[in-house]
Amino acid sequence: MKKTKFFGTCAIALGALIALSACGGGKSTSSSGDNASTGDKGKEKTAALITDTGGVDDRSFNQSAWEGLQKWGKDHKLKRGNNGFQYFQSTNESEYVPNIDQALSAGFQTIFGIGYKLKPAIEQQAKSNPDTNFVIIDDVIEGQKNVVSATFQDNEAAYLAGIAAAYTTKSNKVGFIGGVEGDVIDRFDAGYKAGVDAGAKALNKTVEVINQYAGDFNAPDKGKSIAQGMYSQGADIIYHASGGTGNGVFQEAKAINESGEGSKVWVIGVDRDQSDEGKYSGGNFCLTSTTKGVNIAVEDLAQKSSDGKFPGGKHIVYGLKQDGVGLTDGQLDDAAKKAVDAAKKDIIDGKVKVPEHPSK
Fold first, then answer.
1. Closest to 59 in 3D by CA, of 279, 213, 257
2. Does the structure show a pLDDT above 90 at 51?
């Protein structure tokens, strides 16, 4: 199998953090670990994450965060449990605060809120627990010295995905499936549409973008149904920014491609390389994936906390320039890869400014 290359590698060098202004169940209780001691020794070396409703096996945003925390723990010979690293899985939004309470009761020194929906819960608990370090991923909490905010310029990676889609589509009709409307998914939506339009213009053609939201980040059935509708309308590529809902998009594309009826359809993955989800009897239908260094941000900030260098009160922004987001090679042909490389350079050089919100 061809080794995956990343246009925007997730290996972020975060030695000098830059303060700038500026997707994702099981039981709500913590998964059992093999170290349940509640002693205080070594608590400065402990970290936990609170998932959004997608859970750590969503093959997307939450899973990337958990992979980063596991790597940090294992690299420092820590065990999964109260004296090391752990996750607390949420099945709905009402479980965010209770899950944070469990993490606090267990004595974790650093607590990550994975996804913008956790902002109110993290903000509330951070105020009540000033001696604990908190991180909010994909949103900003201002004025709290024990909170670090980490956001990503997803619109830049989505723009590259749009370029790739425009250069690959045969039907000149592509789709976008979002999870829940809001500022974060706006960035994916707007960037993708802008990239498709730019790619189509360069190729002197018109490419239509069909756009629909599932209203949920953990509804594979909805994702499959929406994808079925888009493919039946003639779209041959769908980019999803919908967390676990996107699993249904991959299911539908696999069913269509394995049926052997009609032309091949593609999916563009999100947040992490989702090429494994695109494998089928005829090859691979995951055209490419936009990547987001959630895993690296989690790993780095957990380490800084344990080193006593937690950058509380800061807002860290990761974009193409910082290698915080990017696009995989996937199944792109040479022309598409060349166009993506050129677009990436233009964004980094400031020649292209990618919108963060869809035009109304």
1. 279
2. yes
* Three-state DSSP state, 3: coil
Residue 137: pLDDT band with limits 50, 70, 90: very high
Distances (CA, A) of 208 to 164, 192, 199, 224, 257: 14, 12, 12, 21, 22
Q: Sorting pLDDT into bands at 50, 70 and 90, what band is 168?
A: very high
Output the DSSP codes for 13-58. Answer: --SS--B--------SSBPP-SB-----TTGGG-EEEE--TT-TTS
Bridge partners, residue 239, by sequence: 176, 268
DSSP readout, 150-215?
Answer: EEE-HHHHHHHHHHHHHHH-SSSEEEEEESS-SHHHHHHHHHHHHHHHHHHHHTT---EEEEEE-S
**Pairing between strand 286-292 and 325-327?**
antiparallel
Consecutive H or E run containing 341 = helix 334-348
Contacts of 135 (CB under 8 A, 6+ apart): 110, 111, 112, 113, 147, 148, 149, 150, 298, 301
Q: What are phi and psi of 310, to 5 degrees?
A: -65, 125
Lowest mean pLDDT among 15-24, 210-219, 323-332: 15-24
- Taking Cα atoms as reference points, which of 233, 319, 282, 278 lies closest to residue 21? 319
For tokens 């998914």, name the residue: 185
pLDDT at residue 54 in the model = 81
CA distance 4 to 20: 31
Q: 52 near 15, Cβ under 8 Å?
A: no
pLDDT digits (tens, 9 = 90+) for 242-288: 999 999 999 999 999 999 988 999 999 999 999 999 999 999 999 99
Dihedral sign for Cα 51, 52, 57, 62, please: negative
- Domains in the chain, start-ordered, CATH in brackets? 43-153+293-318 (3.40.50.2300), 154-292+323-348 (3.40.50.2300)
Q: Which amino acid is at 15?
A: G
Please state the pTM of the whole predicted model: 0.80
Nearest to 169 by CA among 230, 241, 228: 230
